[in-house]
Design goal:
Elements: H1 7-23, H2 26-29, E1 33-42, E2 45-47, E3 51-56, E4 59-64, E5 67-72, E6 78-84, E7 87-93, E8 96-97, H3 101-108, H4 111-119, E9 123-124, E10 128-132, E11 134-135
Parallel strand pairs: 1-10
Antiparallel strand pairs: 1-2, 1-5, 3-4, 3-6, 6-7, 7-11, 8-9
């Protein structure tokens, strides 16, 4: 008759299997929020007090740089639109899949990846977002006609 493992050994096996399965799904193990540091630079120098709107499929947030902001994660990019005194920038910051990627495919057959894409929990943005501002050139469509003075 084959010898069965003692009760404590089965507990260890079950706990190990459960932890491997849970490690593969960001929806179960990751937060849906992430804190980012947003900073702005113009002409290779930091600029304080720049208003920035951050937005993705999960919401919209406003900060004055430099600042930390907690955003709701999404699988898609984070748009960062910053403006101050004729300087502006509109950038997209890509989300990348975090360490749960392989666990999702190996342990859940891809189902965990689908859930993570819907909730954004299996994705991360860079912890620091540095926005490079450029000076706005005047839009020629709104310039006064040649030879006219505008007061």
């Amino acid at each position: 008759m084959p010898r069965l493992l003692p009760w404590s050994a089965w507990t260890v096996v079950a706990a190990s299997a459960a932890s491997m399965i849970l490690a593969g799904c960001g929806t179960l193990t990751q937060s849906s929020n992430q804190t980012l540091l947003v900073q702005t630079v113009l002409d290779y120098k930091p600029v304080d007090g720049v208003g920035c709107v951050l937005s993705n499929a999960a919401g919209r947030w406003f900060v004055m740089t430099p600042a930390k902001v907690t955003v709701k994660k999404a699988a898609g990019p984070l748009r960062v639109d910053c403006r101050k005194d004729g300087a502006a920038s509109d950038e997209l910051v890509g989300a990348r899949q975090d360490r749960t990627l392989w666990g999702n495919y190996v342990l859940t057959g891809g189902l965990g990846n689908k859930l993570d894409r819907e909730t954004g929990r299996g994705f991360e943005y860079p912890g620091t977002v540095t926005v490079v501002l450029t000076r706005d050139a005047p839009d020629p469509r709104y310039a006064p006609p040649e030879g006219r003075v505008v007061y």
